[in-house]
Structures
1.
Amino acid sequence: MVEVENLNKIYTVGSKQEKVLDGITFHIQKGELVLLRGVSGSGKTTLLSILAGMEKPSSGKVLIDSEPISKLPDIHLSHFRAKKIGMVFQHFNLIENLTLLDNVLVPLVANRVGLKEAKEMALAALKNARIEHKKDAYPNRLSGGEKQRGAIARAIVAKPSLLLCDEPTANLDSKNSQSFIEQLMQMHKEGQTIVVATHDPIFETLECEHRIIDIKNGKIV
Amino acid sequence: MNSLFLNNQVIVYIFSETVLALLTLIIFVMALKFIRYWDFNSFSNFQLKLEKEANLVMTIATFLFTLKLLLLIYFVYTIDNLSLIVPGAMCGAGVISANDYGMTLLFVKIIVIFGLLLFLVVNHYDLLGKNYPLFRFKSWVIVTAALLIFGEFYLDISYFTNIDTSVPVSCCSALFGNLEGANPLPFGLDIKMLLVLFFTLYFGAVVALYLESRLLSTLLLALFGVIAYYSVVYFFGTYVYELPTHKCPFCMLQKEYNYIGYLIWGSLFFGLYFGFIWVIMSLRSYKLERIKLASILLLTLFVAINSFYVANYYLHNGVLLENIK
Ligand SMILES: Nc1ncnc2c1ncn2[C@@H]1O[C@H](COP(=O)(O)OP(=O)(O)O)[C@@H](O)[C@H]1O
Ligand SMILES: [Mg+2]
């Protein structure tokens, strides 16, 4: 499902080269829940961005569903992303002047789903994320927990092969974090492949089968 | 003497060509690098860097080649305008033949445009594939086109710096007229045979394209190109001008004739280009229906416009130019 081999990412700032990812190798099977743990600055976001096809590696192999996503020409890449990848971010990244329902519709528009079917899928996703009752609200009227559930609905609406979450609980209180974890376990049970990057200790108590990848200074430890 | 080189339009033209030639030099070098090192199956730092560079280079090439297409039209327009300055020239024919470089330049341009168009098509289909299936081929197209562009640039400069405005040039009646009585047509043809060939080859080329015969298409398109050129200059053109003695490929570009020359030559050349591009792409197992159709339609348009001028003249005057004594 996900194959990463000898992945390196070097950022050049001025004349200085910084190796942010260093020889990362791992495989993820379909349906696995993977926790990517590491302190701030260890390279988690960079790794997720590469998995999402938003950043290009400096070298190394990244295959998702057997496609070398770092090598796809742009038109294929955006198509691939819209179809295969769902993302949940620390700051939720909902579009402020769209209602929650419209926010969830956005990925479907990119996938060219017909409007009627798209609405049904969006409502189902909102229901799944337990935020259906706020579908007509604008993001600035939602609490952090509600925004995150909206973001989850948007991430899963197009039924992505791979769900990537970057510090999903960083802006949530413990009650909402716990609720997020329950949703995560629910999605895992339904067979969704998930990677969560986090340094939140709340995940220590995760009560379902999962795998931990620890990352330090851009290396797996 | 060389007041012509300082003509506004010539300055704009030469300046643009210089900038484009410099950009071409960059993509030429990059394309050579691609040909040497490209290995899509590698995930090395170097290959991933090449892929990023390829994105940039192909974008520049697309931009560049599109601009060059537009610049050709500007070139023809400039040449036509210069006939007001160059003594003795009544149209582009005189200006182009003001020195030995002119005709070669025009000929090279016609080939260059083919290269540019081929690149745009190949690049388009390469990017539609997931693994750059035509990458090496399109790099070769860039290299070849770039070499031609360098040659063209040399001819550009040589041509425009060698027009002496104090020496009168011949105009089209002297260049294309039948003054000495010698037959200007190729293969010893007369007008009647020329026209028979014109329509037969048109029909044959269209059928060959339609039936997707590569060899036959290539052959018939090439022959049709040659015959079409002579047919326009020595027959159809005279109906555009409504004057049996006016034999010229350039005057029809002027306002008096509604700029119809752009359409006539444009439909012919682009019809041929698309036909050849269809052949080349089908050798790479791409069956480009729309390119094939574009070729057939443009060639048909070309034949239709030419025939229209003859028919129109006949309907108005009840007589053909050849029969006016
Ligand atoms: N665009 C960039 N340019 C330069 N350095 C960057 C860039 N993005 C991230 N970095 C650096 O890469 C390192 C890892 O960052 P990141 O992947 O965001 O870590 P994490 O998500 O684990 O906190 C940090 O030192 C950061 O400063
Ligand atoms: Mg981060």
2.
Amino acid sequence: MEPIHSYTDKKSYIDQIDPISKLLFAFVSIFITYLFSSIPITCFVLLISIVLLMVGRVLRKIVPLLAISFTLLLSIIIVQGLTHPTNEMPLLTLGTIVFYQEGLTFALLITLRVFNMLAAFGVLILTTKPDDLMESLMKQGMSPKISYVFLSVFQLIPQMRATLGKITDAQRSRGMETEGSLMIRIKAFFPLLGPAVLSSLNMTKERAIALEVRGFSSKGKKTFISEEKSYFYPKFVRCGLIILLIAAIVWRIVG
Amino acid sequence: MSKIRVEGLKYRYPDMDSLVLDDLSFEVEKGAFIGIVGENTAGKSTLCYALTGLVPHFFKGAYGGNVLIDNIDVKQSEISDVTSKAGLVFDQPFSQMTGSKTTVYEEIAFGLENSGVEREEMRIRIDNSLRLMDIEHLQNKNPYDLSGGQMQRVAIASVLAMKPDVIVLDEPTSQLDPQGSDEVFQVIAKLAESGITIIMAEHKLEKLAEYASKILLLHKGKQIAYGSPKEVFSRDDILEYGIAPPVYVRIAKALKLKNKAGFYPITLDGLKQQWNVGDE
Ligand SMILES: Nc1ncnc2c1ncn2[C@@H]1O[C@H](COP(=O)(O)OP(=O)(O)OP(=O)(O)O)[C@@H](O)[C@H]1O
Ligand SMILES: [Mg+2]
């Protein structure tokens, strides 16, 4: 099995950007896709996230996530395609079932937004050492408790993967099919999801206790074992992102 | 003066009806190795939380009595002050890793960073802990790439680096395979020899019989017995508390091999000795 931690230092250009800028990027990028209800703009924003993932050499890691979310989004696409209130123009007819252009367009926008959300956060999570993000946030004056929430988000995916691995092993040892064709795997996957989510939540609770006994919420001054990293002009990058955000808002209001 | 004094400790989790700890009173000498035994839901884990301040600071609920470490009341201290004196190790290796660190070395540093230890001092303490836990060769690995036994030793090293006088371990080997479990017991024995007070909830009674100086037997939150392993494991009513005594005790029982004080031997060596005495 692949290692379960999500970050490995790829020494790419993206690794040199400071964590706060990447966090800011994720928010700006997601905000813009909601500011404009436009498919071309959302496509463009998504494209930027994907290019950044490529530069960071982590695009491959995000693909399974996109695939899983797409299977969940399928139901939205079908429902909207069939029943969106503004549906007028039939686009696709399968026997007696008619998919309309308006509904499908709407569903496409949602899908692109979700993809961009995953990709933009992927840029942050997959190219940032969790500890560096935590440290940056705490140096910005954020409380350890809130930084911990970010940490948990980092943890969720590797944790679920670890648990899924364990449960799959257990089920295989009881003779359940977990390998083979895609269909067999999908069938085996869904019954696993419940236990995986539950045990991840439980682990999150256990981890909270474990952090607590290691002085995590101690109010005194903290020290850091690693020397401070130097990043690529953090102020410059952050200013650039904020200007971009303001420009987008102005364009939306004026345009 | 005893290291830990528990006086009439009572505790109930929030929104629950019954007491999980019901009037516990015992003392622990400095450097002792105490085994906590009892069937599932006896309250072992909860007692471990109470000894490290998680109860009542992290888990609220109804609390009565006192837990004193070095004569200082846990209830009235900050939780971080308690845990720097009495560290806690859990059963699950995986959930004890912070997840924010990418090497074992940094993982062990986490608690020290939180308590504001200077970098130079941190390095000294981490190196010491790595050596004691026999994991120096793993220091640059990602904690998540380790085996359960290795991860558990990292967890103990992280606690050890905080220089506690007491280490509380809640079934630290229950999730490990036999090899990992042996590795962990060996390092715990080392700690006990170095003078650290060890308190350990454990189902593997053979191991406790080998290492523990005293056994605390809990049942439904009540303290049934607190005494030497021989004394506690020789009790005729021990099965009623859901405890199967160590295998050597069961053999000795079947052979009716008691010593003069009326206790059964609890280890293989003890059994052999008793057998020879019986022969004479
Ligand atoms: N967070 C909690 N909230 C409410 N009740 C709890 C909580 N944790 C444990 N309990 C209850 O307290 C009782 C004692 O649990 P505890 O975990 O201390 O037992 P234990 O002796 O450690 O058992 P095991 O051998 O299974 O680890 C149980 O009845 C349990 O259901
Ligand atoms: Mg327990």
